[in-house]
Amino acid sequence: MAKKRPQTRATRPQPTDGEIPVVGAREPCPCGSGRRYKACHGRAAAHAVTELVHRPFEGLPGECDWVALRELVPAATVELPLKDGLPEGVPSVTLATVLPMAWPALRRDDGSVLLGLQNDTASGDISRDLADTLQRALTAEPGTPVQARRAPADGPRLQDLLDAEGTFEPVVHSGFEFWIPDTENATPEVTASLERANAAAIPTVKLAGVGAAYWCETPEKNHLRWVMPHPEEQLLDALARLHAAGRSSLGEGTRLVGSFRAHGLTVPVWDLPSGVGADDVEKPADEFAERLAAALASDAPLTPEERRARGGLTNRQVTLS
User: Fold this and answer.
1) How far apart are CA 4 and CA 85, in angstroms?
2) What are the 10-residue block averages of pLDDT along the chain, 321 residues in total?
3) 3-state DSSP call for residue 149?
């Protein structure tokens, strides 16, 4: 094992962790320790970048809907209640699936904040990156976007900033007009971004009767994508029991085709005929939820048919994150 290098006495005042600037990995650390940045204050930053938090939204109200809005839903907004209340001059904080020009956040002219969810993040913890963006948006000048940056390794997470007792109620939109309260004064760049986003948006509806289930329409067929909170292995066993028994569909012409894995949760997916709309699957989804609850409660070993069904579902599983 390599020996630890002795620390040298700093010759200038040492800044706090929050003031340490980022320098080259092999350069001397600005704190004055005498070590290279990568072996000193850069170590925590590097760890934050490489360590993947598999369930970044765990502990937040509506974890399943957070995952759906991050990965599946084109256009949606949610009002976010802050743990310590709204700062003076900030009338509201709204989470949006995506913002114009792919901005991480935007402080509007009236002081309200829009926080974008579907953005690339600099670290393995989406929650920490979003919390850093939110904090900067709360103090940004009205009328300005917030740019991306690497969040401090010891910075807060969304779980530290949002009200854990608050609600999370997504509003799904048919387009992105919520970006622009005053379309007449929008810049050409924002207007062009809006047109591109609207053209690419897939029609999506959130079911009313069950949690985090989203119907969407595509040219060839429709789909239901349902983010579920149950442990993956237990959920796959339950789905396999229902599939082997011929009870995993949502009605005639529909079929369970597989699942996504996203941010630590499993998202079963059903193919639906093109004529089946969101209203048509409300009742079948309610009935499926009851069948699934019974299957989840079973601890009997899987039969050979159920094991084959489970293998088929597992083979068709796709990891989104």
Assistant:
1) 46
2) 36 41 64 72 56 94 98 97 96 96 94 96 93 98 94 94 96 93 78 88 96 94 97 97 97 95 97 96 98 97 97 90 69
3) coil
